[in-house]
Structures are given as structure tokens and as C-alpha cells.
């Protein structure tokens, strides 16, 4: 086959050109890397401040508020300003421009590097005075003991501003996130226990003035009653006192702390034990009924007791009926926690033989007591 070299060269050149044109329209895949957004202080705001006639204003204060702080700059003779060291983040920045003899202007801006914004100030009364905020509480005073609240506390914040008016009130509880109340008043409820709970609050007016320094107060809340239970020891018997229980109560309070514990039997207060705990003790004596049969000598009778020497005596002893034992624990805020048990006081009948033993018993008995014989029942309560 005959080939035309000239024709072949032309075709080759045309093919290369077509190939280059085609590849120029094909998108090139590029590898992108993503990085997480970080907060830095590389943001800035710049621009000019003029009056309504377009004349530059020198000495106007431009202030950018962010993250409970601010950066500022004054305009020069050309009206130019440049505020730097502004945090770059997702939040909008409250920005104000003010000068004596002009009305303050403010705007919310999203600041990045070299953000521009021009202010136009109108002559008139200037609001450079921040608002003033006060608080009230409900209940107005602690409703527990020792300065503690034992209920929810409603906090009302009220702000005043005589010129531009109040835009919003902000507050924080124990260093938590900033909360916003729109307008010149609002309220919120404190319903969690805490010691020295710190509440900070401040207001911003419509001219952008921020109340500084922040107002604050602390409050103590304890709405939780103490944790209490009644472990108790086995009873032991005393011939003169009867059956005795070593009662022991474990009581704790994690907030205001323990104050005292009351011991009750059948709803009758027996003993109050003060102290921080956690353990409180009380030796509780129960009614003891004892019957004596036998031979005695040297009996001595007084208005208070009977004393004799036992030669040979058989006793039948028992205690009273069932008793309900309970304790109530009080913390320093006045909260009360109680626990109780239905205790069987009667451990008998119980028999004992006494030989050549001296006894002294209360002079409250029924039955017969002679110089040599005894058949009597004593209540040694």
C-alpha cells in the first residue's frame, strides 16, 4: 500500500490537537483533606466610620464582644478602624460603634479574617451607660435551718436602662453555660441541691452596652432528707434494770451534714443524741416484769425499795408487749429522715434460780413479801 507522508503528518498533528482539547475539558480528580474547625483569635474587623453626610468621624469606639470579653479600636482621622485578635468561631459577635454626640450603632457580625463593615453614626444623644440588673428570690429568705433552703428557689432578674432600653439579661449557674432571658426581666428555678451555688448575671442594652462587672450571689439548697437505718444489738438482762437493748442508728447527710438523732419507742421520745454521726448510740431499757417465789431473810422495806437476802428463790421473768422502735435523723438544714422496726420485747419466759444473793428491787409490787417468804411480782420499769 502506498502511503502519503505529508497526509500522514497532517493527520497526526490534528489527532494530537484533538487529544489536548479533549483532555482540557475532562475534570481532574484532586485529593482533598478535611480538617476539623478550630477556634482561634485570628479574626479581625475593619472599615470606616462616617456621619450621615459621608464625613469621616475620628475617635469613634468600635468594640466587638465575644466569649464574655471584647476587643476594640478607635477610628483615625480618616474614619478608619481595625479591631484584631477576635475569636473565629460559629457564634455571631455583638459589635458596637459609639462616640459622644452620636447615637450608638450595633450589629451582629460573623467574624473571619479581615471582615469589613462600615458604620454610619447619626447625631443625637449617645447611650454609653450600661444597664443595671437586680435579683429577687422566692422564698425571699432560707426556709430551712442554718441558712439553707429546703425547697425550690425561683430567681427573678430585673434590668433597667433609661436610654436605649434592655435587650436581654444573661446568667450562669455554677459556671455552667450562659442562659439568655429576652427583655428587661425574667425568671428561672433552682431545683438541685448544692452548697455555695454561684449565680452570675448581667444585662445588655439595645445600644450594645454590657453590664460590668457581673452581679453575683450564692445560695445553699438541701432538699434531701438524711439516709438513716437501725442496726441493733441483741438484748442483755440486768437483774435491777431488766432487759436492755443497745440501739445503734447509722445516719448520714451528704449536703448540709448531720445535726442530731431522736430515738422513739411506741412514738414516745426516749433520747436525743447530737453530733455529726454517722453512728448514734442509745442503751434502751425496757419494762421488766419479774415474779419471785422462795425463801428470804433480812428484808428491809423503805419508801423507795425493798432489799433482802435470797436463800433460795426461783424467778419467772418476762418483758412487756411488742414495741415499735424508730429513730428520726435531722440534718442541719432541718430535713428529717426516719426508719423503724417492730421489736419483740418479750424474750421469755425466762427462769432463774438465785441462791444466797442480795437483791434490791423497786418498791412497786403485788403479792406477798414477809420476813422469810416471798411470792410477789415486780415491775422494774
Provide an overview of this structure.
By secondary structure, this protein is mostly beta strands. 6% of the residues lie in helices and 55% in strands. Strands 22, 23, 26, 27, 28 and 29 form a six-stranded antiparallel sheet that branches. Strands 1, 4, 7 and 8 form a four-stranded mixed sheet that branches.
Question: Keywords for this structure?
Answer:
single chain, mainly beta, Immunoglobulin-like, 6-stranded antiparallel β-sheet, 4-stranded mixed β-sheet, 29 strands
What's the structural blueprint in terms of helices and strands?
Layout: H1 5-25, E1 40-51, E2 61-66, E3 69-74, E4 80-88, E5 93-98, E6 105-109, E7 115-116, E8 119-121, E9 132-138, E10 153-160, E11 166-173, E12 179-182, E13 185-190, E14 194-205, E15 215-221, E16 227-229, E17 236-238, E18 242-252, E19 258-265, E20 268-274, E21 279-285, E22 288-301, E23 305-319, E24 323-331, E25 336-343, E26 350-354, E27 357-362, E28 365-369, E29 373-379
Parallel strand pairs: 1-7, 1-8
Antiparallel strand pairs: 1-4, 2-3, 2-5, 5-6, 9-10, 10-13, 11-12, 11-14, 14-15, 16-18, 17-18, 18-21, 19-20, 19-24, 22-23, 22-29, 23-26, 23-27, 24-25, 28-29
